[in-house]
C-alpha cells in the first residue's frame, strides 16, 4: 500500500483485508469484481445480471464496489465505472477521510485509477499517456497496466488530461 497523494493510497486486496478493513476514517474503492462486487450482489454465474441496478457499481457507506475486470479489451471497461471511482475518491478526500483504491494485485486497475486522479489534480504530466505512465512508475513502481485498462487510458487520455467534466 502506497500513498500517492495526500491521504490517497493504492494497494491490493491484502492491504484492504489486513490494514484498512473496519477502520474508521477510511473510504475504499474495490476496483475488482472478485470477490467484492460479486459477494455484495450475490451472483454466482460468470457475471452480474446485466439488468441489475448495481451492475456497474454499488456504494455502501464508505465503500465503492466496482464491477471491473482486468480484461484484454478496453471496450469492456465502462467509462462510468472509472468516472464514479474518481468522484468517490474526490468526495472521500474532501471529507477528510483516507482513501484506499485497491484491486486484486495492486498492479493494473487500482493504480490506473490513481494515475487518472493525479492527472485531474495536475500533479503528474498530462503531455501524453506514455510520459505520465513513466512518471507514475517512479511514484508507484508496481504499476503494470494490462491491455484493457491501458487501452482505456490511451483512448480517453485527452479527456482526463484536459480536465473535462467527468460524466
The gist of it:
With 167 residues, the protein is α/β, with parallel strands linked by helices. 43% of the residues lie in helices and 17% in strands.
Task: Please give a handful of descriptors for the protein shown.
alpha/beta; Protein-Tyrosine Phosphatase, Chain A; six-stranded mixed sheet; 6 strands; 43% helix; globular
Q: What Rg, in angstroms, do the CA atoms define?
A: 15 Å
H-E string:
EEHEHEEHEHHH
Number of domains: 1
The biggest sheet, with number of strands, parallel, antiparallel or mixed sense and barrel status, is: 6 strands, mixed
Count of beta strands: 6
CATH fold description: Protein-Tyrosine Phosphatase, Chain A
The low-confidence parts are: none
The CATH architecture is: Alpha-Beta Complex
> Quick one: CATH class?
Alpha Beta
C-alpha termini separation: 28 Å
Class by alpha and beta content: alpha/beta
How would you characterize the overall build of this protein?
This protein has 167 residues and is of the alpha/beta class. It has a single domain, classed as Alpha-Beta Complex (Protein-Tyrosine Phosphatase, Chain A). The chain is 43% helix and 17% strand. Strand 1 and strand 2 (8-12) form a beta hairpin. The two termini are 28 Å apart.
Q: What order do the helices and strands come in, and which of them pair?
A:
Elements: E1 2-5, E2 8-12, H1 13-20, E3 26-30, H2 33-41, E4 57-60, E5 63-66, H3 79-94, E6 98-103, H4 109-120, H5 129-139, H6 147-161
Parallel strand pairs: 2-6, 3-5, 3-6
Antiparallel strand pairs: 1-2, 4-5
Helix pairs in contact: 3-4, 4-6
Amino acid at each position: 500500500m502506497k500513498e500517492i497523494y495526500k491521504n490517497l493510497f493504492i494497494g491490493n486486496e491484502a492491504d484492504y483485508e489486513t490494514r484498512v478493513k473496519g477502520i474508521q476514517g477510511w473510504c475504499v474503492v474495490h476496483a475488482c469484481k472478485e470477490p467484492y462486487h460479486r459477494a455484495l450482489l450475490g451472483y454466482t454465474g460468470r457475471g452480474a445480471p446485466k439488468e441489475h441496478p448495481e451492475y456497474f457499481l454499488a456504494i455502501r457507506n464508505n465503500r465503492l464496489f466496482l464491477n471491473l475486470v482486468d480484461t484484454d479489451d478496453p471496450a469492456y471497461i465502462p467509462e462510468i465505472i472509472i468516472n464514479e471511482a474518481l468522484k468517490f475518491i474526490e468526495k472521500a478526500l474532501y471529507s477528510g477521510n483516507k482513501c484506499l483504491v485497491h484491486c486484486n494485485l495492486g498492479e493494473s486497475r487500482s493504480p490506473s485509477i490513481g494515475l487518472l486522479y493525479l492527472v485531474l489534480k495536475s500533479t503528474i504530466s498530462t503531455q501524453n499517456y506514455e510520459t505520465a505512465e513513466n512518471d507514475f512508475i517512479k511514484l508507484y513502481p508496481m504499476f503494470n497496466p494490462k491491455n484493457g485498462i491501458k487501452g482505456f487510458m490511451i483512448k480517453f487520455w485527452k479527456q482526463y488530461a484536459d480536465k473535462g467534466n467527468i460524466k
